[in-house]
Amino acid sequence: MSGAGRTGDGHGRAGRVLSGLAVAVGCVLFLGGFVWGALLYQPYTVPTDSMTPTIGQGTRVLAERVDGSEVRRGDIVVFKDKAWGDVPMIKRVVGVGGDTVRCCDDRGRLTVGGKPVEEPYLRGGGPASPTGFSADVPQGQLFLIGDHRMTSIDSRSHLADATHGSVPREAVQGRVDATAWPMSGWGMMDRPESFAALPGGTSRPGPLPLVLAAVVGGAVLILGGAAYGPVVALLRPRRGTGGNAGRDAGRDGEGRKEGTAERVR
Fold first, then answer.
1. How many domains does the chain have?
2. 154: in domain
3. Would residue 50 show up in a list of annotated catalytic residues for this protein?
């Protein structure tokens, strides 16, 4: 075998090894990303319009499974509390234990601990709540309001309760990180900057971008590695075709010469 042939075979073996490695790594990333996402996130469907315009009715969201102690002001959470019907609900946290939540100031804004909060996610230019209220949030509790302040049934509707409309942190089942469906509205949930200036700040986004990167990257490696063999086969030049044709033509020529010689004789 020639040196060129050995070199070509070596490159082919290396390519096959690398393509197999790409498929193996891709499978680990793809399956690992799905498992990771399933362990960390729970999908929910928003049943009402109480969170519009941020999250519309019927929207599918992804909520990171977090402990209630990790929740901060501005977070959108999924929770379940017996006083609220013992069914999963989605609202925004505007107050935590020790806060005094009031509405509204002279500019129609919500105040937390006496500090006004700008809420750009609200619809229209009206006040932060159509009715005024004031609530002291007990320690270990959360004060929750929907973004559609005209129709949302939330902590404002439970102000007469012993907890002043708040729910325990333990009632939280997840923190909404992204909207998943419909695809036209897909995106990550922003943390409102207005809450960042308050004590405790805002929460950090979950690892959903990393999960998606693992799944997409794994899919690319699997497809790329699986396509290596067929692509190389299509691009590889056919060996020996020209030589065989030449030899066949030579034989035909010799046969014709021999036939001519016989006729001459």
1. 1
2. yes
3. yes
pLDDT for 246 equals 47
Q: What would the pLDDT profile of 7-57 be if each residue is shown by its tens digit?
A: 455 556 776 788 888 889 889 999 999 899 999 999 999 999 999 999 999
Summarize pLDDT for 157-205 with one digit per residue, the tens.
999 999 999 999 999 999 999 999 888 878 899 899 999 989 999 999 9
Q: Which entry of 2, 19, 50, 80 is annotated as an active-site residue?
A: 50
Catalytic annotation on 184?
no
Q: Domain range spanning residue 135?
A: 42-205
From the list 19, 80, 82, 91, the catalytic residue is: 91
* Averaged pLDDT, 85-95: 95
Residue 90 and residue 223 in contact, taking contact as beta carbons nearer than 8 Å: no
CATH number at residue 117: 2.10.109.10
The values of phi and psi at residue 178, to 5°, are -160, 160
Average pLDDT, the chain: 85
pLDDT at 256 over 80: no
